[in-house]
Each structure stands twice: as structure tokens, then as C-alpha cells.
Design goal:
It is a single chain. The chain is an all-alpha fold. It has one domain: A middle domain of Talin 1. The protein is 83% helix and 2% strand. The chain is built from 13 helices and four strands. The strands form two sheets. It has a two-stranded antiparallel ribbon with strand order 1-4. A two-stranded antiparallel sheet has the order 2-3. Helix 1 runs antiparallel to helix 8, helix 4 packs antiparallel against helix 12 and helix 5 packs parallel to helix 10. The protein is globular and about 65 Å long.
Length: 367
């Protein structure tokens, strides 16, 4: 058992460290070659932070463990919203930018629905992966064009400070950054092998399926950078970053991680009946749940964060109960679907209705 734990923890540490080196080297290399730090942040850094998920999903697919690859992406998306936003909102109510409500959340919902629809024939084929990659390129191009038109100097200065810096153009500096990229990629490959091997051994030891392990332990492991980034952003008062990090990560997971995994696999990525009947629909439902919560005063209150967190605990508990063959698992699922979910939906609809009524009321006249 200790050997399995060592593989999982060691692989995760190598994964995270490799992603950090890759992002640092690639971003400095890009700026040294004259690419705007703003564009670097929206492309190189955004893809780099999703590299642990990509490395693990590719390794799982190449090892003939598609359930682990699918579970990693779907589980990460569910975890990002329910666990990360739940924890962050419990720390401090989160501000939601208007752009997220009007653009990014609808794109996240659309991508979730599209992936579910493509998977309904029991898999995502290579040409479907190519379609998702094309959509991802279009989304990144749109982000870059929109950001280049940003008028607020404070926003641009924040990007310059975060992704800029003194990245000299000398040959030595370029060589160092190329070395960082190479070492980061090597660590991603090695870390993903250790992590996937440990997760597979744990699944066999506990009698759980690859899908359940992918939806829980693997998803949590590869999402730890996002967990840390969002929680730290909430603690520092950068509440819009905490929310934007989650939504952006979910879009990248679907349109780049799952897409590239299916594109680079010889036969695409098969999707199990269990994922189609529960986990993918739940991921779509979680994406839809963001809209009514984000709409209410453009704020995620603490009670809504607690609601998200409670649902994540309930969902994870069901996965382990069902995966271990616990007899009451189906009754538990029925209770959640028949009573808890409709009650939550009604509560959210009432909140949206109240917010709509509030916005319809005329503003008080100035004295």
C-alpha cells in the first residue's frame, strides 16, 4: 500500500513541478522572442496549467485505460465548480464578472453539451477530437483579439506584471528557457506514468473501477494547481480571478485535453455506459447550475458555496458507495435525484426570480 501511495504522491509532485517549469520556460521564451506577455498569458500559460490533465489523460489512453482518461476530464470539471468554487465562496463571497455570465459560462455549457452529444455513440472519435481542437483554437483567437482591445490600463498592467519581466533576448537566456521547457516536458511524461500506475494499482486494491478513480483521486490530483490558485486568489481578495480560473479551466479541459487525447489516440477515446448515464449528465448539470447562481447580484454567496460543496461531497460519496457495491447506493441515488436535486433547482429558480424582480424596480430618485 505504501508503494502505491508513493507512486501517486511522487507522480503528482513531479507532474506539478514539471508543469511549473514548462509554463515558466515557455512563457519566458515567448516573451524573449518578442511575443506580447498578454498573449503569452492567454495561450502558453493557459495551456501549460492544463498540462497535468493532458499528460495523465494521454498516458491513460495509451495504456488502454480510457475510463481513467475520461474520468480525469469529467471529474476535474465537476470538481472545479463544486469543490473549488464552493471552498473559495466559503472563504469570501465571490464576484462574478459580467463577461463570464454573458460569454464564458455559456461557452462552458455549450462545450459540455457538445462533448456529451459526441460521446453518446459510446466514444469520441478522432475526427470529433479534431473538431473540438478547431473550436479551441477559435476560442483562443477570440480571447486574444478581445484582450488586445482591452481599454483598462490596470488590466493590461496586471498581465505585464504577471507574465512579463526581464526576459532577455540573449542566446544564453533562450538556451536556459529551452532547457526548462525540455525538462518540464520530461517531468510531465515521467510524473504521469507514476501517477497513472499508482491510481490503477489503487483501483485494483480497493475494487473500484478506473472511472471512479479517475473521477475522484486522479481528478483531484491533477486539479490541485487550480485548487491552490483559486483559494489563494480568494484569500488575497482577487475574487474575480478565482471564478475565471475555474470557468477557463473547464473550457480548456473539454476543448483541449479531451480533444487532444481522442485525436492522438489510435481509435479515439471510448466512453463507458456508466459515464454516459451519470457522470457526463452531471457535469452538464453542474455547468448549467452556474448560470442562476452567477446571475444573482453577480455574486456567489457563502450559502451557495456551501451548496456546491455539499453536492460535491454527496456525489463523491455515491461514487464510492456504488463502486464498492454497497447495497444502499441505488436508494441514495434515487433520493438525490427525486428530492434533493429538484429542491435545489427550485431554490435557485426562486433566487433568479427575486433578482429579476429587483432589477425591474426603478432606481430611487436622487435627492
Amino acid at each position: 500500500m505504501w508503494m502505491i501511495g508513493l507512486l501517486i504522491v511522487g507522480g503528482l509532485v513531479i507532474l506539478v513541478a514539471g508543469a511549473e517549469l514548462l509554463v515558466r520556460g515557455a512563457s519566458r521564451l515567448a516573451t524573449a522572442l518578442g511575443i506580447s506577455p498578454l498573449i503569452v498569458g492567454l495561450t502558453v500559460v493557459a495551456f501549460g496549467t492544463s498540462s497535468p490533465e493532458l499528460a495523465v489523460s494521454l498516458q491513460s489512453a495509451f495504456n488502454g485505460q480510457p475510463d481513467l482518461a475520461v474520468g480525469n476530464v469529467v471529474g476535474s470539471n465537476i470538481l472545479n465548480v463544486l469543490l473549488i468554487l464552493g471552498l473559495s465562496a466559503l472563504i469570501v463571497p465571490l464576484v462574478v464578472a459580467q463577461q463570464l455570465v454573458r460569454l464564458d459560462v455559456p461557452i462552458m455549457i455549450g462545450a459540455s453539451l457538445l462533448v456529451w452529444g459526441l460521446a453518446l455513440d459510446s466514444g469520441i472519435e478522432r475526427w470529433e477530437g479534431l473538431l473540438l481542437v478547431v473550436l479551441m483554437v477559435g476560442y483562443v483567437v477570440f480571447l486574444v483579439r478581445q484582450s488586445l482591445q482591452e481599454k483598462q490600463s490596470a488590466v493590461r498592467a496586471e498581465y505585464e506584471q504577471e507574465y512579463g519581466g526581464n526576459n532577455g533576448r540573449g542566446g544564453r537566456q533562450v538556451g536556459v528557457n529551452l532547457m526548462l521547457v525540455a525538462v518540464g516536458l520530461a517531468m510531465l511524461v515521467l510524473g504521469s506514468r507514476f501517477f497513472v500506475q499508482g491510481a490503477s494499482d489503487l483501483a485494483r486494491l480497493l475494487g473500484l473501477s478506473d472511472l471512479v478513480i479517475g473521477l475522484t483521486i486522479v481528478a483531484l490530483g491533477t486539479s490541485l494547481p487550480e485548487v491552490a490558485a483559486s483559494v489563494m486568489a480568494a484569500l488575497k481578495g482577487e475574487r474575480d480571478i478565482a471564478v475565471g480560473n475555474v470557468v477557463g479551466s473547464n473550457i480548456f479541459n473539454l476543448l483541449s485535453v479531451l480533444a487532444l487525447t481522442s485525436l492522438l489516440s489510435s481509435n479515439g477515446v471510448p466512453v463507458s455506459a456508466s459515464a454516459l448515464s451519470l457522470d457526463l449528465p452531471f457535469m452538464v448539470a453542474v455547468a448549467f447550475a452556474c448560470l442562476p447562481i452567477f446571475l444573482t447580484r453577480n455574486l456567489i454567496d457563502r450559502w451557495e458555496g456551501a451548496l456546491f460543496l455539499g453536492y460535491y461531497i454527496a456525489y463523491t460519496l455515491y461514487l464510492f458507495l456504488d463502486g464498492s457495491g454497497y447495497p444502499a447506493a441505488q436508494q441514495y441515488r434515487t433520493f438525490m435525484l427525486v428530492f434533493v436535486a429538484p429542491l435545489t433547482a427550485a431554490t435557485l429558480l426562486v433566487s433568479v426570480w427575486r433578482e429579476w424582480r429587483r432589477r425591474q424596480q426603478p432606481a430611487p430618485a436622487a435627492r
